[in-house]
Design brief:
Elements (H helix, E strand, L loop, with lengths): L1 H26 L7 H8 L3 H7 L3 H20 L14 H12 L1 H9 L4 H22 L10 H21 L6 H30 L5 H6 L4
Amino acid sequence: MEIKKEDRRVQRTRNMLFDALIDLMIEKGYEALTVQNIIDRANVGRSTFYAHFFDKEQLLIGNIDRLREFLVEQIAKHSLPKEESEFKFGFSLVMLQHVQSHKRLYRAIASKQSEMLVLLHMKRMLAHLAEDEIARYWSRFGSIQIPYDVAAEFAVTTFLTVLTWWMERNMSCTAEECDRLYHKLIFSGISASRELDKQQNKMFAPRLSASDSDMLPLE
């Protein structure tokens, strides 16, 4: 019973620090704020802050981890695709809806060149989610012959480009429409990669001996 009370107290303190960080990022930007700003806003002591986090970057990463857990929870609700043509990245629509409901925060991040560290950590988090989706789903369909991490980098870089475009236009379309645009761009890139694979296979096929063909299946 005492342990549960302690856990709740610890979580409450962490949530207060997370909330203070978000508020200050909207007001000042991440780079401009200090640990003192955070503890003043959260109304906790300096020793309390350092009992939970090493510095403001660790607090930022903790906040992004909370977002990752939320995204994973939402992605898990999606049914598995039965056909390759049904595949869609689960993280994209959920992330767009999250941005839509936290406009002030994401506009503050996107509008400041100094917020590169925030974007870097967010990109890494999304890349891990994308790579996990690729490993679980695309492998079932014998998809394009490129490393998963390269495909994930392409998927997330494209997503962030679409996200920036969407925000610069004051989110003039819905999250669902933006998600459809994102997947059109992604799948056009995948189709181009497949076409290139076919052309390369045709180019090298005549050079293979019969034994080589047995060893190297071509699609």
